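Narrative of activities, Objective 1.

The group set out to show that a structural description can be obtained from nothing but a protein's sequence at a throughput compatible with the screening campaign. Below is one input-output pair from the validation batch, recorded exactly as produced.
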Amino acid sequence: MNDIRNIAFIGAGNMTQSIVGGMCKSGYPAEKVWISNPSTGKLDKMKSELGVNTSQDNLEVVNAADAIVLAVKPQLMAEVCDHLKQHIDNLADKLIITIAAGIRIPKYRQYLGDDIKIIRVMPNTPSLVGQGMSGLVADDSVNDADKSYVTEAFNGVGETLWVSDEDQLDILGAVAGSGPAYFFEFMDSLAKGAVELGFDPEKARAMVQQTCLGAAQMAKESDLSLEDLRKQVTSKGGSTAKGVETYQQRELHNISADAVKAAVNRNQEMAKLF
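Output recorded for this entry:
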């Protein structure tokens, strides 16, 4: 990573742990990373394992940093931001990054000031195993160097995708953010189907999870469309064709589309709560 800045994380939850772990694994200097949290358990663990700087004081880590990652729950964001605004004079000089769901950029300007530079990032839970899909959005206050910096940082836990506006980020959240739950639901249904036919539960899970992993890797490495990949596996008149036909009769496409729409609607409802 060429652009190394002092970066502070406010909040030491699972996502912070995965992002910081990925950054350090990718070569980011631990001495440039600061983390604050009200309790010490997670801080002590990260300091011991990674060598990062830790504190129970948000102001201490923010004063030490050029970039600040707001990684607290949405319902705590207003309080945390108000404390920063009251006590940090040069917030406009720092890059603000938020990974909280639901809160839009204009609201952060109300919380922190109209002159802040802010990027919203929506990581997903596979970031915890280095296979994340993080969506990013910023307005015109953020320059290309800042965007490149955040892209490289979050590439440490998977892949990144810039979107054009916050409506697009809602859609990304409904697919990539919520998507792992959809896949787990589908995987669970496949495994239960095998168990109902007499398969051992542990073996059913092993079979399903490896099949899912393999299919995802094939999709990632292939230039074919997802539909064409499906056709490759589906011999005309064979058993796979019968299984796929069942999904098509039940209109799996519409079910998935409705699920994404429902999640987008909820994202938009949540934005009105803050």
